[in-house]
Amino acid sequence: MRRLLTGTLALAILTGFGAPEVAAGAGPDLILHDAVVLTMDADAPHATAVAITGERIVAVGSDAEVLPLAGAGTAVVDLDGRTVTPGFIDSHGHWIGDRLLYGVSTPQEAIQTALEDGWTSLDELFVNQERLDELTALDAAGELRVRVNAYLPVNFGPDQKFGFWFSDLTPGAQIGPRLRLAGAKFFIDGCGPDTYYLSEPRDDGDRGQFDWKRRALRRLVARVHDAGWQIAAHTCGDGATDEILDALELAFGDDPGKPFRARLEHLVVLRDDQLARMRRLGAIASFQLTFVDSGWTHDLKAVFSRDRLELFGRWRDIVEEPKLRSMGSTDTPYGEGSPLGPSSVIDALVQATTKQDQPGDPAPRWMREQRLTIDQALRSLTTGGAYGIFAEDALGMVAPGMLADLVVLSEDPHMVPKLELERIDVLIVFVGGTLEVCAPAVTTLCPA
User: Fold this and answer.
1) Smallest Cα–Cα separation from 5: which of 435, 398, 394?
2) What is the torsion angle, in degrees rounded to the nearest 10, for the CA atoms of residue 143, residue 379, residue 423 and residue 288?
3) pLDDT higher at 304 or 392
4) Partner of 175 for a Cys bridge, out of 50, 179, 337, 435, CB 3.0 to 4.6 A?
């Protein structure tokens, strides 16, 4: 896509919303103004204008503060009240690796779909050697137009054990401009009504599927942790969560856990004591906004009694747990049920705030009590996702010094009734100051 021209003089990075001192003739490459800017910065949550130089944001504030920074080569775009957000982070998905499952044949098409759906960063949670080679080649060719954080699997289910095959790689390494080796993925249990590994048997007496021998799990978790890798654990049932928390506790030893940011993925069934334990270990709750909605009701009720259902999909309890970090995602293509398909940012917001799989679907009380507010959902896909990949200083907020990953929406989600959120369109997407998406309806606004 088109690359914004870089100015000959750099603009001083702001430390606040006020105007900086700028050398004569200097100016940013691009200014977006007359906008509703949702910064996700708790200290300054709202603005109307953003200035970009190169791949960074250099100014955020009011039109009166930012517009005077324009120089002769600055592209100035009047968004006429449209909404600017940070680029959205899908913290758990398989957009590129499992693209064939939703009818996409090439990685380039999968990337384009993700961008058009509002995503600027993707955490790919199953990157084996073949997929890593593909991502590396895409990045080297300049075709990885989203940021990708790769999680490398040590197993898949109980029968496929890959081991520490990536021991010669460097944890956290930036392979190229858009590709990072993020962490190691452990599958602890299955993720269906018959395969969640539970702390207590289901009504039929079965506890579900545990993918490991306990000692083997603990040994490998410790080995991978000691080598410096962030651990992401697929854990759907509360029994599986007990097992990985035990393993992490042993691996962390006397260390507080917080610097490690171990990720617990899915957490479909979760107890109060586990929330507190995750907080103590500094573990991150990685949940899917597209999970546990009205489309799940029939299957869950067929297997679990009413009192057990209260433990399912506790997204609001997670985000409101004091000092527990969390992040949201879609698990594309698995978040849409049958048929499998990609989930847009707007899909995620709709399902998180309504718990409806389809418009008008009734959601039971225990699901409705776990609905997120719009602000909670937005933060899970921005600041939450950035923290989960150690990128809170570069992504997740619209603030000076941050990477210019930005999305322009047709409306502010806060101002749209939650039952009408689907009317919001993704109009423009920037990744690192590069214009990657310009919807046909707004081509006159997109900088050349």
Assistant:
1) 435
2) 80
3) 392
4) 179
